[in-house]
Amino acid sequence: MAGTGVFADVLDGEVYKYYADGEWRASASGKTVAIVNPTTRQTQYRVQACTQEEVNKVMDAAKVAQKAWARTPLWKRAELLHKAAAILKEHKAPIAECLVKEIAKPAKDAVSEVVRSGDLVSYTAEEGVRILGEGKLLVSDSFPGNERNKYCLSSKVPLGVVLAIPPFNYPVNLAVSKIGPALIAGNSLVLKPPTQGAVAALHMVHCFHLAGFPKGLISCVTGKGSEIGDFLTMHPGVNCISFTGGDTGIAISKKAGMVPLQMELGGKDACIVLDDADLDLVAANIVKGGFSYSGQRCTAVKVVLIMEAVADTVVEKVNAKVAKLKVGPPEDDCDITPVVTESSANFIEGLVMDAKEKGATFCQEYRREGNLIWPLLLDHVRPDMRIAWEEPFGPVLPVIRINSVEEGIHHCNASNFGLQGCVFTRDINKAIMISDAMESGTVQINSAPARGPDHFPFLKDSGIGSQGITNSINMMTKVKSTVINLPSPSYTMG
Ligand SMILES: NC(=O)C1=CN([C@@H]2O[C@H](COP(=O)(O)OP(=O)(O)OC[C@H]3O[C@@H](n4cnc5c(N)ncnc54)[C@H](OP(=O)(O)O)[C@@H]3O)[C@@H](O)[C@H]2O)C=CC1
Ligand SMILES: O=C(O)[C@H](O)COP(=O)(O)O
């Protein structure tokens, strides 16, 4: 159970502690932040509202710890990461319980998130050993005018202190996707978890603590992003920011100093359906892609662009599947669970009402109880409706009927987002050409968008840089070169 057994140290009475300098601590602020259960809409947990002074101390400790960590052999860093991964998986049940209570993630998906996170950490350790174990040797005579009298040895070295800010929808997985690469590359890491999901993240951090990472190398400060976010992201002790979330990321990138940024923001993933597609496959992927975790995934299908000739058939097939989705609490492992906050539910409702006023066809009756919104397919959506462009982050999916592939590509590319997209057709040549034309980081052919497997590059225009294990390790390093200057040119004869 959360906050008990090996996790007892994390809890102080009714309030979860924050993690600094290898210890669990209560904040001197005496203030707490409430985490509201999306299902009951009651306070489920409380976390510390950390102060600026506490952030300063964490940054100082992170700087000191990083210097020693960078001198720790790569294989030892990997060994500790493997240990943390095993502990994380061993304790999947209490961590998953937090995900169910804090973010209403369906019970089975919550367990999968923790297991996937352990696997991600292990893979990162292995990948880090491989890619950081190699450097480059450059010789000078390849550049015009030079002889071979200079040897340049370059390798990847850490950046320093990495600040990780994940979003609510994967508070564990999108935290470890930043923690693992940062640590294997020799950085220290300061985590600011999302408020909804903070307790799951604190439990995950405790698994790293139990694995025996040095003091100060990992810290976790809690508090509302709106209150301590700016102080963290503009802190002079930060050498890199890895952020996943919404428009907050745009504001951060404007305020952050001259540090490398990894920003993974929203998406409006388009699903283009051609008339030669396997329509059962299309319907299955629209439902899975559009409605898993109630549409609260950056990679969710967020607009269907379908050829008029097959639209009626697909809409009918999708509706039949939507009717079978189980709606209810995450504890019952329902497919559709309450969305994360009341304000999120209100925002989604605003998009639905706009579509209603402008004449979209409601394939199901709109129904909401508290934060629980029943799955809804909106047909005959037109570009003048907000839902055609905005990301609901909820179980509402618009269908726009198109008369040509070009029309679909045009809609996709006119969006400000460009995270992922997908195309359904039996013609591989067409699929490749459409993929090339879609200005999206990743295009899936004949499957719904998805980030995983987690070693795939997770590229996008909806942000800066790219994720995926290898990309993140590379992003959290810089190149250091040492040039050997020979007294006279030297050429190897064999
Ligand atoms: N691309 C993706 O993977 C995802 C995209 N999103 C997008 O984000 C929207 C909202 O999701 P949400 O998680 O609330 O995203 P936010 O951008 O609101 O929050 C993401 C993280 O940033 C923190 N934060 C908030 N304000 C600041 C600040 N000023 N400085 C630094 N950090 C801050 C949040 O903390 P706190 O919780 O304390 O406010 C949270 O940890 C969704 O509607 C969707 O558009 C969301 C999830 C994933
Ligand atoms: O933040 C998100 O929504 C994720 O990066 C999407 O991951 P998924 O495709 O594995 O759900």
TrEMBL record:
Gene3D superfamilies: Aldehyde Dehydrogenase, Chain A, domain 1, Aldehyde Dehydrogenase, Chain A, domain 2. Important as a means of generating NADPH for biosynthetic reactions. Its main location: cytoplasm. It is found in: Cytoplasm. Belongs to the aldehyde dehydrogenase family. It comes from Triticum turgidum subsp. durum. Residues 24-481 form the Aldehyde dehydrogenase domain. This is NADP-dependent glyceraldehyde-3-phosphate dehydrogenase. It holds the Pfam family Aldedh. It catalyses: D-glyceraldehyde 3-phosphate + NADP(+) + H2O = (2R)-3-phosphoglycerate + NADPH + 2 H(+). Its EC number is 1.2.1.9. GO terms for molecular function: glyceraldehyde-3-phosphate dehydrogenase (NADP+) (non-phosphorylating) activity; lactaldehyde dehydrogenase (NAD+) activity. The active site is at E264. It comes from the Eukaryota. InterPro entries: Ald_DH/histidinol_DH, Ald_DH_C, Ald_DH_CS_CYS, Ald_DH_CS_GLU, Ald_DH_N, Aldehyde_DH_dom, ALDH-related_metabolic_enz. PANTHER family: ALDEHYDE DEHYDROGENASE. SUPFAM superfamilies: ALDH-like (SSF53720). One of its GO terms (cellular component) is cytoplasm. Keywords: Cytoplasm, NADP, Oxidoreductase.
